[in-house]
Amino acid sequence: MELKNLATRIYRPIIPEVEGRNMVLAGLVIVTIVILMAIFADLIAPYDPTKFAGKPLSPPSLNNPMGTDNLGRDILSRVIHGSRVVLLVVFAASMVSMSIGVPIGLISGFFGGKLDRAISMIMDSMYAFPSLILAIAIAAVLGPSVLNAVVAISVVYVPTYFRMIRGQTLSLKSRLFVEAARAAGAGNFRIMRKYIFPNLVTTVIVVFSLSVADAILTEAGLSFLGFIVTAPTPDWGFDLSSGRPYLPSGYWWMITFPGFMVMLLALGFALIGEGLSELYAPRRER
Amino acid sequence: MTETSGTTKKPLKPPANILLRIHNLSTHYFSRRGVLKAVDRVSMDLKKEEFVGIVGESGCGKSTLAFSIMRLILPPGEIVDGEIIFNGKNLLKLSEEEMRRVRGKEIGMIFQDPMTSLDPLEKIGDQIVETIQMHENIGKKEALEKAMELLESVGLSGDRVNYYPHQLSGGQRQRIMIALAIALNPNLLIADEPTTALDVIVQEKIMEILKKMTREGRSVILITHDFSLAAEKSDKIVIMYAGWIVEMGESKKLVNEPLHPYTRGLINSVPDVWIDRDIRPMPGFPPDLISPPEGCRFHPRCPQAMEKCRIKEPPVVEVDSRMVKCWLYG
Amino acid sequence: MEIIRVENLKKYFPVQKSFLEVLFSKELQFIRAVDGVSFGIEEGETLSLVGESGCGKTTVGRLLVGLEEPTDGKIFFKGEDITGLKGEEKRRIHRHLQVIFQDPYASLNPKMKIGDHLVDPLQIHGIASNNEAKKIAIEMLERVGLVPAEQFYNRLPYQLSGGQRQRVAIARAMVLRPEFVVADEPVSMIDVSLRAAILNLLLSFKDEYRLSMLFITHDLSVARLVGDRIAVMYLGKIVEIGDVKEVIHHPKHPYTAALLSAVPSFDKKNLGIEIIGDVANPRNPPPGCRYNTRCPFARPDCREAVPELKGTSNHMVACHYELDISI
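ok -> structure tokens follow
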């Protein structure tokens, strides 16, 4: 371990991307595994997640590597199938947030003025709420369902995209190459399309990864409170809440494994986001 | 005309009037792609109270040479060979502790961008006092008086000791850098592109201050890519190319009768405000120092390149009390 | 024919005030970056605009190509008043007024291919369609020395050196075949040994296209090389303007003489003309002649009246007491 640190310190000045690249790779590995898990759930899972698969409340064993829950269902299978709901909700919500937040951020930042100030005020107010609280508020109004959860989570993250994109747009629009495009005769929309947007893409990707990581935790929270799925559908957050009453009696496996998966998937996306931002950020000194 | 091989062989103990003798110095950078020979077997002398201008394009090694003298080369760079005899001692053999005492007290250095070398949160006076007190054991009041004197000597009024860096212009800040550099009365002042970011009138004033340093008993090394600037003020000019010194000599002679084709090319490619003439650009680009051309590193761009130049490294030759590294004279 | 005429051009920028200033004073302060500048440029002529940083020369350039709107004054292009044009009309005219910026590392879009930088202006002005435009772009890349052109077409800016990027910037300006170009310090950020090639490239376009140019620089040596005429600016005003050799060898304004004394040269001339102190604050220029606080020849009436540009068509100066020297 000492030797590896030493080596990193020597080569860091020459290869600064070592850390960033490793982070992205590690994150991609994690995320890919979970995605594959979701796609091939039916093939991989040993049991049907909604049916009886062993003696209830039995600890991890060869038959049930993650143990069984209070209804005798195999937790491993529930964990594997649970990834579907999580990924579906989080991806769908993030896509919606991105499709709304990015264009509004770009247009608002580019044109500025009163419209920009008004929209910024609204976005900042939303941003001030902790994501889970806001998501709960919206989901409570709409009622528990997967679709409503997607709506709630989408709304929560629109301001995140808006702020980052607007900030980047503000800094880009006064750059010299944009002025050069103006001098060549380019109009506003052409500039936004060809000169500003392509330079936003890396920011969008980084924000996407990081807000998906956050959204996973928000989804787990909503699901925990019962706002997303109803029994017997497997979902990590939901399983966490079903397993909670049994913890004081020593039945730890119902919470630990779904909880670990939430953390792992969030970590995966966070690693991608942080790694990418380190790769793209000008950290290198001349 | 005397000829020696690729490196000059000189006795190690220099005569009394030579302040700095660099002998066969090589500084390399070790990167993934290979070894970058930034300074390759460079030898030169600097007399007391002499003003030397080191001229070359970016990447020729002039800054690396300056940093090597100060032993401020950081990994992946390393001084791999040679001697730097300053005031009788070999700087490369000193311990880091001893070298730290040399820096500032015996050799002062000025860099291009004064803003990055000054602490924006401290008053100018305090920064000078700090520097003085690091090396000398005198009280704050005395040190402050000295600071004011230093400011006056570079053309600023003494009351500027109470100013913060951002309250001063670029030219004023650069003067403060000079004041800091001479605070401990070093014998040698190295200025690395000190006026590149400044306007021409301010540049002239700063150059005048540097020139004054030699009249006050110091030697100055000016590093610049501006040939005419170096030519104006220097007693001697050193032309560097791709890590080598390709020509060195008294400045008026060098400018009027350049020996090396690169020197000639440089002179011809620079416009002059008083003379009407077409400028002729030098063909090609500076070489990749990791795999430079075989033989003479300048040969791909040289209008007078011979067969020999493509194969063998040219010798360092003395012509008319000047020095040139070229097959045309070997 | 006069291609460009500028009359009493002004550009004032409101000043960012510090917090205390906002609290305690109501009045708006302005930086008078350009304060009453007038000149004309003939077809095929290059006017070198020189001065130190902060004198307003870059702002003049930006005003001419429409990147800034003038606070006052007029700009004429081929006799037509183009001040304050907007939209489609502005685009139509400004096709003929192009610009080359100083910083080759900032003036190209990092995500856009080199070739696209040249094709875009062609498409904007409807000069050529996709394939036509690509052909023109490749020809232009060859013309500026970026060969093999096909390869350079597909590269991204980060793959090019500073000198190469500046060639792209020149190509972009020239691809529209403009009649007038503003070159704002085009070689200041290029390594000294590579400047000659870029300057010669610009000069070759000047000849081939019969270009009129405003060449902005702080380097008098380059100003002489490139310019037919020269204008010297100080704190927002032109203090001397005329035929380039005439002004350099017979400077009438003390500031011009001071600049000439300070320029590095293999043939340095000491004119013995001093300049006192540092550049004045552009927020509060001195009363009367703006140069009076630094002028070694200043007399009391220099503080009272602002001198006007006067002289022959060949050489004009704004000074109450002109110098009479020959170099």
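The mean pLDDT of chain A is 87.
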